[in-house]
Amino acid sequence: MAEAPAVDAHAHVFTRSMPFAADAHARPDYDYPAEAWLADLDRHGIAYGVIAAASLFDDGNAYTLATLARHPRLRATVLVPPETDSATLRDMANLGVVGVRLIWRRRAALPALDAEPWRGMLRRLADTGLHVELLAGSAQLPILLPRLADADVRVVVDHFGVPSRDPFERSAGTGALLRAVDTGRVWVKISAGFRIDHATAAEVAGRLLTQAGPERLLWGSDAPFVNHEAGVTYADTLDLYHRLVPDPATRAAIDRTALALYFNSEGMP
């Protein structure tokens, strides 16, 4: 496919043998191993992929790290406690880990990022060259993003910034996202658009494209579409991406962004 993305920057891989987290919000009864995702990538002409750590599982990143060892075309984020030391982070980075995912969309109370253990964690991430992969919603972004900027750590925001259905809250969240992008240390994924209505996805994508530009944007499928498996296919996610970003040159620029961020431009055509 001549216009296939170069990188799928957001997918989850797992098997039924992996233990669920105690607070898992969904419990898939099927396998979506790395090989199934790679088959989807190959079927659609996508060269590289980035595994997003899933809060559903509590296997200590074992499956993700083993997958990276088998497949050099992949990178990943992981879930680790904030006390994780620099040596552990460096070891993970050497295996192909690019960031640590913070899943705070459903948290009623946000952590104090300017106090321990989070202050030290963010410093260690910055020193190790890893980024924060942030899953948070419109109401949380105006609070979290300035604190992360103060920590001088790179940030990749998932799923359009999880825009709110409330237009005022959504506008405030997207505004905070755009101000953060202006720091030069924040990127945003156009991913999981099937989880929000098309009008909202188009609205936020339009603001991101116009005001942030493709140099700060990434695309991800969110395969295997947990809780939406019956109504979404991999091809559907690509079709939505092409509708939200119809210009091939803009999509090519997003490819370059993903290759540079995750692969240091290795393997760029």
Automatic annotation (TrEMBL):
Species of origin: Sphingomonas agrestis
Name of the protein in question: Amidohydrolase family protein
Cross-referenced SUPFAM superfamilies: Metallo-dependent hydrolases
Superkingdom per UniProt: Bacteria
Limits of the Amidohydrolase-related domain: 7-261
Signal peptide coordinates: none
InterPro entries: Amidohydro-rel (IPR006680), Aro_Compnd_Degr_Hydrolases (IPR052358), Metal_Hydrolase (IPR032466)
